[in-house]
């Protein structure tokens, strides 16, 4: 086990303040100390959402078309595992190291990624006992009314890429991801070796005959986990 999930999603957007308000409404909590450029949010599990202007030079330049997530930082459960993964990646690509020990690289399918030691915090949930699959005791009971959701974890991120099969092979062979599901002609659902999520990343076929596919590398969505059955994506 090494990669234990998404440590940070770094977005590039046209209007930082507007997107910040969106994530406020979405239920994320802003960090008490904000970066000098852009915005930062931290989820209860300790993962982060970072918002930068699309022209911020701090964003890694890449082939990703359009706005959205521009870099994925994967959490690693220890320094030795991080160094082992970095050694393997260094055989055929350039790595950039930050002073905090984060290493950055570009995946074969063009998405900027990083690895950072991630002490993921356990998240406590109290799902509604009368509103879960298969439960019949909800008969004649009121369900728990929720005024709003507060995301607790980042579950997965999705990119459309012209060669999604090659993208899958990169995630499998270089970062030890495992295949969860394959949707012929449409995408590969793969999970990090240290997670119990169905998938940590979905690589969609950018040439699939479905709405939103442009044939180019682009961000599609990220998925956040909340208290119980409901899931939220943006
Ligand atoms: Fe999703």
Structure, explained:
This protein is an alpha+beta fold and 234 residues long. The protein has a single domain (3-121, 151-233), classed as Roll (2,3-Dihydroxybiphenyl 1,2-Dioxygenase, domain 1), CATH 3.10.180. The protein is built from 3 helices and 14 strands. The chain has helices spanning 16-26, 79-89, 164-175; strands spanning 3-13, 29-30, 39-42, 48-53, 68-76, 96-97, 103-106, 112-117, 153-161, 178-183, 187-191, 201-205, 218-225, 231-233. It has an 8-stranded mixed β-sheet with strand order 2-3-4-1-5-8-7-6. A hairpin with a 5-residue loop joins β6 (96-97) and β7 (103-106). The site of fe (ii) ion has 5 residues, from β9 and β13.
List keywords for this structure.
2,3-Dihydroxybiphenyl 1,2-Dioxygenase, domain 1, 234 residues, binds fe (ii) ion, eight-stranded mixed beta sheet, six-stranded mixed beta sheet, alpha+beta, 15% helix
Q: SS-based structural class?
A: alpha+beta
CATH topology: the name is 2,3-Dihydroxybiphenyl 1,2-Dioxygenase, domain 1
Contiguous low-pLDDT stretches (5 residues minimum) are none
Rough shape?
Answer: globular
Order of helices and strands: EHEEEEHEEEEHEEEEE
Quantity of strands, as a count: 14
CATH homologous superfamily heading: 2,3-Dihydroxybiphenyl 1,2-Dioxygenase, domain 1
CATH architecture: Roll
Helix content: 10-25%
Q: What is the CATH C-level name?
A: Alpha Beta
**CA-to-CA gap between the ends?**
28 Å
Mean pLDDT: 93
| Cα gyration radius (Å) | 18 Å
Can you tell me the number of structural domains? 1
Query: What ions, cofactors and ligands are bound?
Result: fe (ii) ion
In DSSP terms (H or I, runs of 4 or more residues), the helix count works out at 3
Largest sheet geometry: 8 strands, mixed
- Tell me the strand percentage band: 25-35%
Strand order of the largest sheet: 2-3-4-1-5-8-7-6
